[in-house]
TrEMBL record, chain A:
This is DUF934 domain-containing protein. Pfam families: DUF934. InterPro entries: UCP030820.
Automatic annotation (TrEMBL), chain B:
Gene3D superfamilies: 3.90.480.20, Sulfite Reductase Hemoprotein, domain 1, Sulfite Reductase Hemoprotein,Domain 2. This is Nitrite/sulfite reductase. Residues 119-273, 410-548 form the Nitrite/sulphite reductase 4Fe-4S domain. The keyword Oxidoreductase applies. Pfam families: NIR_SIR, NIR_SIR_ferr. Residues 53-109, 329-396 form the Nitrite/Sulfite reductase ferredoxin-like domain. It comes from Endozoicomonas euniceicola.
Length: 166, 552
C-alpha cells in the first residue's frame, strides 16, 4: 500500500480497502470502503465490523436512496475512475449541500495534484493521491487561488459578497 | 466595459502563476502528456498541425484599444505578427511556443486579459450580440449578464471536467445575432409587462456532427435565479451526459435522449434543491455589474439623412455606407463593421500593424472600444454619423473598408486544412476563390444578404449548418471535395441547411454558387432574401439547375 492519504495538510499511509463480502480482511487494514450495493445487501454484517467504515460512491450511483443511512458511516469515499470523469464533484456537492453530510469526504482513484483545488471547493476533505504524485505540490495546490467568483460547498465567500461587506 | 478591481486582477494573476507552475512540472516530467492535456486546454492551448495554437478570450467580444495594442505586441514578439479572430468572438495565435505561453499569459494579465476556459471540456467563454448595448432593437443589454456568467463560470469547481465542452450564448434583442439556438445553453433576456427583466433558458442546441436546434426549458425565470438555474442545468448534464463516446457527449444528445420536457423537469427539481441552500444573485451585484456597462458620453446629435450623406461621397463610400453601417440606439451615432474579408486575406486574420492602426482609429472615432463578431469581423460600435466620411477614408487607405458585410463574400470560414489536422479539405483557399469569382460589387449588392459558411470537416467550426449556403469539406478517396447545403439560418427562427446533392471539386464550387444565385434571382419576390426564397421553393429548383432534370 504505497498510496498516500492527504488529510488536514498532512500525509498518511492509506490503510483502506474496498470491502467485499467474502474476503478476509488483512491485519493492517484500518478502513473499509463499502460499495452501496453491498451495503444494501449486507447491512447487518457490516454493522458488526469494528473498523472505520466509509461509503464507497461510484460515478453512476444515486445517493438519494442513501440519505437515511449516511449517519452510519464514518466518511464517504468518492471514486474517480479517470481524472477526466467529473461526476464525483457533483456527488460531493450533493452530499454537502443537500444531504447535509458533515463528515469526511474523500477522493479516491485517479486523483491528481491539479484536481485537488476543485475537489476541495466541492466539499472533499481528504484525498488518496494517485501513486507518483508529488506530495509537496499537492499540499500547495490546495491553496492555488485565494479568491473565488462563485460560492461552493467549501462555504468560501464569493468575491461579490466580499465586495458587498466592505 | 467591465474593468477589473483588485480582486479580479488577483484571480488572473494567480492563474498565471498556476499555469507557469504546471508548465514547469510538465516540462520537468512530473505531469504526463495525458494529464497536461486538459490543463493546457483550459488555458486555450492546443497542439495543432504545425505548432501550438493559443486561444485568448475576448469575453462576449468586447475589447479596448489598449488590449488590441497588447495583442499586436504579443503577436509580434511571440508569434508571426498576425492574429486570427474566431467564430466565437475570441482571438488566436497560431505559432506560440509552449515554453513562452506563461509569459504571454502574464503580458495579457497586465491588460486584464486571459485565456481561461477558451477550450477544454468546461464552460467556455460566453458569447453575445456584437451590437450589445447599441443595437436599435435591444430590449435588455446582455453585457452585464454575460459578465455575471463569465465570473460564475470562471474556475467553477464542479464543472471543470464535464463530458464535453459547454457553450453559453446570450441574446437581449429582437433579432438573435448570437446564434443562441445552436448553443448548449441559450439565454434570452426580455422584459415583462411591468418592465421587469425575465429570462427564458434554452438547452440542447449545437452543431458538429449532429446539428440540433435548442429547446426552451424554462420561461420567465427571475434574473436573481439565473446562476442557480445554470448550476442546476450543468449538474444534470455533468451527472448524466454520456462519457463513453466523444461524439455523443454534448448536452444536445442528453436533452434529445431524455426529451426536452423530462430534461427540463430534472433541472427544475435540482434547481429547487439548490435554491434552498444557495443565495440568489444579490441586487447590489446586479446593479454593480450594470454600472460597468453604462452608455458612453454621447454628444446630443441628430440623425443625419443618409441619402444626403451618400451623395457627398464616391460610389465606394456609398456601398460601404449602405452595407457596413448599422443603426444605433443613440441618435446621431452608427455602428460600423470592418469586415476582415478582403480577397486574399484569410477570413478573420489581421496583421499586427493593422491592429495598431485599428486601435488608433477606434480611439479617434469610437470611444476606444471595439467588438469582435462571430462573423469574424470587427466593429466600431459608437461612431458619430458626421464622422463617417472621414472614418471611411481612413479605413479605405488601410484596406479595411471592404463593403461586403453580410454579403456573399463576407465568408465565415474555419482554419481548415491549412492549419487543422482534422480537416478533410482546405477552407481558406475556397473562400478566396469565391471572393475572386464574385468581384462584381453590383452583382453582390443585388443578391443582398447572404451568409456563406465554410467548414473543413464535420466538426462545423464555421457553423455551415446555419449558413444560408453552407459548405462542408469532405474526403472522396483522398481528394478534397465540397458538399453544398442551402436553407440554414441562425436567428430566432433558426433552421438547418439541406444538402443539395453530390459534392464538387474546389474549382467547380464558385460556378455552382452562381447557378444557385441565378435560380434565386429569377424566382425571388420583391425584397425577398436568398434564405427566404430557398425555404419557400425547397431544394428542387436549385437541384435541377445544378444537376439537371433527372437528378431532382
Ligand atoms: C485549428 C484547430 C481546430 C480544431 C482541431 C478544432 C476542432 C473542433 C472540434 C473537434 C469541434 C467539434 C466539437 C464538437 O462536436 O463538440 C469544433 C467545434 C467548433 N469549433 Fe473548432 N477547431 C479548431 C479551430 C477552430 C477555430 C479557429 C474556430 C473559430 C474560427 C473554431 C470554432 C469552432 C466552433 C464555433 C465550434 C462549435 C460547433 C459547436 O458548438 O457545435 N474552431 N472544433
Ligand atoms: S471544421 Fe474541421 S477542419 Fe475546420 S477547424 Fe474545425 S475541425 Fe478543423
Amino acid at each position: 500500500m504505497d498510496r498516500k492519504l492527504l488529510k488536514d495538510n498532512e500525509l498518511y499511509p492509506d490503510h483502506s480497502i474496498v470491502w467485499q463480502a467474502d474476503t478476509a480482511i488483512a491485519e493492517n487494514v484500518q478502513e473499509l470502503l463499502i460499495p452501496q450495493v453491498l451495503w444494501q445487501a449486507h447491512k447487518e454484517d457490516i454493522r458488526l465490523l469494528s473498523l472505520r467504515k466509509l461509503l464507497y460512491v461510484l460515478p453512476d450511483d444515486e445517493l438519494t436512496d442513501m440519505e437515511a443511512d449516511l449517519s452510519e458511516f464514518d466518511g464517504i469515499a468518492i471514486q474517480f475512475p479517470g481524472f477526466l470523469d467529473g461526476r464525483g464533484y457533483s456527488h460531493a456537492r450533493t452530499l454537502r449541500d443537500h444531504l447535509n453530510f458533515r463528515g469526511e469526504i474523500r477522493a479516491v482513484g485517479d486523483v491528481l495534484v491539479d484536481q485537488l483545488f476543485f475537489m476541495k471547493r466541492c466539499g472533499f476533505s481528504s484525498f488518496v493521491l494517485k501513486p507518483g504524485q508529488n506530495p509537496d505540490a499537492a499540499i500547495k495546490a490546495l491553496s492555488t487561488f485565494q479568491l473565488s467568483y462563485q460560492g461552493s460547498s467549501d462555504l468560501r465567500k464569493p468575491v461579490h459578497r466580499i465586495r458587498e461587506s466592505l | 466595459m467591465y474593468i477589473y478591481d483588485e480582486y479580479d486582477q488577483r484571480i488572473v494573476d494567480e492563474r498565471v502563476d498556476q499555469f507557469r507552475d504546471q508548465t514547469h512540472r510538465y516540462l520537468a516530467g512530473e505531469i504526463t502528456e495525458d494529464e497536461f492535456l486538459p490543463l493546457r486546454l483550459q488555458n486555450g492551448l492546443y497542439i495543432q498541425r504545425f505548432a501550438p495554437m493559443m486561444r485568448i478570450a475576448i469575453p462576449y467580444g468586447l475589447i479596448s484599444t489598449r488590449q488590441v495594442r497588447k495583442l499586436a505586441d504579443i503577436s509580434r514578439h511571440y508569434d508571426k505578427g498576425y492574429v486570427h479572430f474566431t467564430t466565437r468572438q475570441n482571438v488566436q495565435l497560431n505559432w506560440p511556443r509552449l515554453e513562452e505561453v506563461p509569459d504571454i499569459l502574464a503580458e495579457l494579465a497586465t491588460v486584464q486579459m486571459h485565456a481561461i476556459q477558451t477550450s477544454g471540456a468546461c464552460i467556455r467563454s460566453t458569447t453575445t450580440d456584437h451590437f450589445a448595448g447599441v443595437a436599435a432593437d435591444e430590449v435588455v443589454d446582455p453585457r452585464p449578464w454575460c459578465e455575471l456568467i463569465r465570473q460564475w463560470s470562471t474556475f467553477h469547481p464542479e464543472f471543470a471536467f464535464l463530458p464535453r465542452k459547454f457553450k453559453i450564448a446570450v441574446c437581449g434583442s429582437g433579432e438573435d445575432r448570437a446564434a443562441t439556438l445552436v448553443h448548449d445553453i441559450g439565454v434570452h433576456l426580455q422584459k415583462d409587462g411591468q418592465g421587469k427583466i425575465r429570462i427564458n433558458v434554452l438547452a440542447g442546441g449545437g452543431l458538429g456532427r449532429t446539428p440540433v436546434i435548442g429547446a426552451v426549458i424554462k420561461e420567465d425565470l427571475e434574473p436573481e435565479q439565473l446562476l442557480n438555474y445554470l448550476d442546476a442545468t450543468l449538474r444534470i448534464y455533468n451527472r448524466y451526459g454520456r462519457r463513453d463516446n466523444k461524439y455523443k457527449a454534448r448536452i444536445k444528445i442528453l436533452v434529445k435522449a431524455m426529451t426536452p420536457e423530462v430534461f427540463a423537469r430534472e433541472v427544475e427539481t435540482e434547481w429547487h434543491r439548490i435554491k434552498k441552500n444557495s443565495q440568489p444573485l444579490s441586487l447590489s451585484e446586479i446593479k454593480r455589474m450594470a454600472t460597468h456597462f453604462t452608455k458612453h458620453d454621447y454628444d446630443p446629435l441628430s440623425d443625419l439623412d443618409f441619402n444626403h450623406l451618400a451623395l457627398q461621397g464616391s460610389p465606394e463610400f456609398q456601398r460601404w455606407l449602405k452595407q457596413n453601417v448599422s443603426a444605433h440606439q443613440q441618435t446621431g451615432y452608427s455602428a460600423v463593421t470592418l469586415t476582415l474579408k478582403a480577397t486574399s486575406d484569410a477570413p478573420g486574420d489581421v496583421s499586427a500593424e493593422q491592429l495598431d492602426d485599428i486601435a488608433n482609429l477606434a480611439d479617434r472615432f469610437s470611444f476606444g472600444e471595439l467588438r469582435v463578431s462571430h462573423e469574424q469581423n470587427l466593429i466600431f460600435a459608437d461612431v458619430p454619423q458626421a464622422q463617417l466620411p472621414e472614418l471611411w477614408q481612413a479605413l479605405d487607405t488601410l484596406g479595411l473598408a471592404t463593403p461586403n458585410r453580410g454579403l456573399l463574400t463576407d465568408v465565415i470560414c474555419c482554419p481548415g486544412g491549412d492549419y487543422c489536422a482534422l480537416a478533410n479539405a482546405r477552407s481558406i483557399p475556397l473562400a478566396e476563390e469565391i471572393q475572386r469569382y464574385f468581384e462584381d460589387l453590383d452583382y453582390l449588392h443585388d443578391i443582398g444578404e447572404l451568409d456563406l459558411n465554410i467548414s473543413g470537416c464535420m466538426n462545423a467550426c464555421a457553423h455551415h449548418h446555419v449558413g444560408h449556403i453552407g459548405i462542408l469539406g469532405v474526403d472522396r478517396k483522398g481528394e478534397e471535395y465540397y458538399q453544398i447545403q442551402i436553407g440554414g439560418s441562425a436567428g430566432k427562427t433558426a433552421s438547418l441547411g439541406k444538402i443539395i446533392g453530390p459534392s464538387f471539386k474546389r474549382e467547380e464550387v464558385p460556378d455552382i454558387i452562381r447557378q444557385l444565385m441565378s435560380v434565386y434571382l429569377e424566382q425571388r419576390y420583391e425584397g425577398e432574401r436568398f434564405i427566404d426564397t430557398s425555404l419557400r421553393l425547397g431544394l428542387t429548383p436549385f437541384k435541377e439547375k445544378v444537376y439537371g432534370q433527372k437528378a431532382a
